[in-house]
Structures are given as C-alpha cells and as structure tokens.
C-alpha cells in the first residue's frame, strides 16, 4: 500500500510520505487535519488509471488537498488490515460482497466504484455506488455489430469470474433475445489456466461459431485474446468474425493485430464523481442519489470491425472496400463501383436498399467516425488526423467535419478530451 499526498504517481501533488506502518514522526501525523482518503483502484489497466486522473482532477481544485493512500492493486483480490490507518473515507473497486462488507464495517464513508453484481446486495447498498451503465454498453456493442452486418452473436466472459462480466453477458443475452437473436457464450474459467491452454480452449469454441458472427468481449484484454485465438485456428478477423471489446485501452487495442475496436468508458468522469461524492460524505452531507450511472462515451472503431457483412455479395464487397480505402485522399465513390465491376447506378441502388444509406453518406460517416476517434484518443494535429481520414487539405477537412458534426475538430477535441 502506498501513502501519498498530492504529487506522487505524477498526478497527486504535494509532500511524499513513506508507509504509515514505518512512519516515525507521529506528532506531525496527529496534527495533520486533512482528510485521509484511501483509494483501492488498480493502476494496471486504462480504466483504473483514468479513474485516478478523475479523482486527482477533483482533488487538485480543493482549497485543502487530501492525504491520499493508494493501493495500486485495487481491492479485487484482498484488502489489508485497515483499522490501524484511521481513514476519513475510501473509494474502492471491490470484487466480492465480503470485501465490500470489510470496508463498510470500518465506520467511515465509502464509495464503491463499478462494483460487481454480487456486491450489490441489500446489506451493501447503503454505500453509494458509481457504476458504468451496463445497458448502454451492451446496446452500443449490439448496434455496432449489427451495423457491421452481423446476424449471429457471441459473448466472451473475462478469464476469471467477475461480476461486471456477468452483468454485461446477461444484459447482452437479454438484449439479443428481445431483438430476435440468440447468443453463444464462452464462460469464465473455473480454475486458472496457462495462457496457451486458455487460447487453445477459446480457439476451439471460436471455430464452432458460424461465419460473420459478432463477438463481444467483456474487456479489451479478453478481446485481444479472442483475436490471438483466431490466429491460432485460422479464423480471419474481421473477414470471418468481427470483434469488439470494452475499455478502449490504447495499448491493448493498438497492439492487437488486427487492432481492436472498443467501447470507451467515461472512467475519468467516474473518478470525478466518486471524489465529489466522497467529499460530501466526509463533510457529513448525504447524497441525493445512492447509485450514479456513468455512461460509455463512444466506440473507437479499429480494424477488428472494419467490415460490412451482407447477403448481397456486391454490397458486402463494396462495404469492405470502403474500409480498406478510407484513408486514401484520392479515394472517391466511383472507385467503389469500378472495384465491384458494376455500374455506379446499380451499386447505388443495391447499396441504398441494403443499408439505408448512399455510398457517399457511408464514406463520409466512416471518415468522420475515424476522425472523432483520433481526436479523442490521440494528440495528433488536426492536419494529420485529416490526412489519416482521407483529406489532403486541412481546411477542407475542417469544413467537412463542421458540416457533419456542427462544430470544428478543435472544439470537438476540447469538449471530449477526458484528461
């Protein structure tokens, strides 16, 4: 467990302390009247790091900074002996009801961050909860995969059993049933397996899925494993299967081959709201709402869903060609018809009938979708992003972006950048 005041881990600022268990000067500690806040938030993944950035964003604006104690492993596995630490409040992402009850029994304000469904029991719900919106997450995943032309669907749980994976899997299955579809499920493993065995079992299951299935992975780490397993058994992504994950972790998504499409969560916003809520509780103010949902922000489409399945083979070829050519400035709608070896008039008619959109509308939509992702997730210049989306002229890109979204690329970036 790390003991921090503002400015350790590069974003909590102020004086550094050593572990309290080894602290020698107790008089200074007794005279320090600042709130002592414990954070049980893992730092190994994008979600946890963005939550911490959000907490820091709130804390840095306070007239009196907090003393922050950070456990970078979170509280998903175990919680240390806490009674000796004399906390003012706690923000924790816990994995079991037992862990939650351990924290609640300390008698200090606790805010639970995106807890598993097993934690959300009547005796635990007296703690405020900041929770990602499962229904919106699965709706975005379904709409995106349907937009790729998928008629079959599958869900891959996290490797180890987690409540949020169960929640997403159940909600995805329920949504598919309501839309008239079924859902194949790859469960969590009952025991810890080696990476090789995990990939082998996943590959065997993936081979059983019908072509053009949309696979929704509970998290990016699992989505990357799905792609690895596909490589091992000769399944082409996205030609045979489309894959989408959750968290939009740039490292995991960009290191996949093909790169992984992912649903971005407003973890930064969750951190800000968790810190604000805890601050009110420590000051003796009861929150108006006990459960605060945090919605996903957008889908970062990458190569794993850069596909368009369709019963009309010409439309399918056209959609796939658009994805492969979208970054080329010289790419125009007539190129699509030439690639499909049909007249433009015939292609326009069949494409509109199959997708409800014209070829030009589709090309523009995909270019703007890519531009939004790059503006949110990279520090590339507007000119470089325009070129990556097929615009050789930065001014023309800005005009096209403003026409599609109603604001300039720079304004969009400032409005949608979390950190």
Find the CATH topology of the largest domain: Rossmann fold
Helix amount, in percent? Answer: 40-55%
Q: Return the structural class.
A: alpha/beta
Give the mean pLDDT.
84
Element order: H for helix, E for strand:
EHEHEEHEEHEHEHEHEHEHEEHHHHHHH
Please outline the major beta sheet: 7 strands, mixed
Contiguous runs where pLDDT drops below 50 for at least 5 residues? 1-29
* Structure summary, number of beta strands: 13
The CATH architecture name of the largest domain reads 3-Layer(aba) Sandwich
Give the strand order of the largest sheet, numbering strands 1, 2, ... along the chain: 1-3-2-4-5-6-12
- Which term fits the overall shape? globular
Strand content bin: 5-15%
What is the first-to-last residue Cα distance? 25 Å
Q: How many discrete domains?
A: 3
Q: What is the CATH first-level class name of the largest domain?
A: Alpha Beta
Number of helices: 16
Secondary-structure blueprint of this entry?
Layout: E1 2-5, H1 26-31, E2 36-40, H2 46-59, E3 67-71, E4 89-92, H3 97-104, E5 110-113, E6 129-132, H4 134-147, E7 152-156, H5 163-178, E8 184-186, H6 195-207, E9 213-217, H7 220-233, E10 241-246, H8 250-255, E11 261-265, H9 267-282, E12 291-294, E13 296-300, H10 313-325, H11 333-340, H12 344-355, H13 359-377, H14 382-388, H15 394-405, H16 409-416
Parallel strand pairs: 2-3, 2-4, 4-5, 5-6, 6-12, 7-8, 7-9, 9-10, 10-11
Antiparallel strand pairs: 1-3, 11-13
Helix pairs in contact: 2-9, 4-5, 6-7, 10-11, 13-16, 14-15
């Amino acid at each position: 467990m790390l003991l921090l005041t503002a400015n350790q881990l590069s974003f909590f600022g102020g004086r550094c302390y050593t572990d309290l268990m080894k602290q020698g000067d107790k008089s200074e500690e007794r005279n320090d009247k600042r709130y002592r806040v414990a954070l049980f938030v893992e730092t190994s993944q994008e979600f946890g790091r963005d939550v911490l950035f959000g907490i820091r964003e709130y804390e840095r604006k306070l007239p009196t900074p907090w003393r922050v104690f950070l456990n970078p492993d979170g509280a998903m596995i175990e919680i240390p002996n806490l009674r000796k630490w004399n906390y003012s409040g706690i923000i924790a992402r816990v994995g079991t009801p037992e862990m939650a009850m351990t924290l609640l029994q300390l008698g200090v304000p606790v805010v639970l961050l995106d807890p598993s469904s097993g934690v959300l029991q009547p005796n635990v719900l007296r703690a405020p909860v900041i929770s990602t919106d499962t229904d919106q997450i699965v709706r975005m995943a379904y709409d995106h995969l349907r937009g790729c032309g998928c008629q079959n669907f599958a869900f891959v749980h996290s490797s180890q059993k987690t409540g949020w994976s169960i929640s997403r899997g159940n909600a995805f299955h329920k949504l598919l049933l309501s839309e008239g579809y079924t859902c194949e499920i790859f469960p969590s493993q009952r025991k810890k397996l080696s990476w090789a065995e995990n990939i082998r079992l996943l590959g065997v299951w993936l081979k059983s899925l019908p072509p053009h299935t949309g696979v929704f992975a509970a998290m990016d780490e699992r989505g990357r494993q799905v792609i690895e397993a596909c490589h091992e058994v000769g399944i082409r992504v996205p030609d045979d299967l489309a894959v989408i994950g959750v968290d939009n972790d740039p490292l995991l998504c960009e290191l996949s081959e093909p790169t992984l499409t992912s649903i971005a969560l407003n973890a930064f916003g969750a951190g800000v709201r968790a810190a604000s809520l805890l601050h009110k509780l420590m000051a003796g103010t009861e929150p108006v709402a006990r459960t605060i949902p945090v919605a996903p922000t957008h889908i970062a489409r990458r190569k794993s869903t850069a596909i368009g399945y369709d019963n009309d083979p010409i439309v399918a070829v056209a959609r796939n060609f658009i994805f492969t050519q979208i970054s080329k400035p010289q790419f125009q709608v007539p190129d699509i018809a030439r690639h499909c070896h049909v007249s433009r008039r015939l292609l326009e008619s069949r494409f509109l009938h199959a997708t409800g959109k014209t070829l030009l509308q589709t090309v523009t939509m995909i270019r703007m979708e890519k531009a939004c992702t790059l503006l949110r997730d990279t520090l590339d210049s507007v000119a470089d992003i325009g070129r990556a989306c097929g615009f050789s002229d930065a001014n023309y890109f800005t005009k096209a972006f403003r026409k599609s979204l109603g604001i300039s690329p720079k304004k969009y970036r400032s409005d949608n950048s979390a950190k």
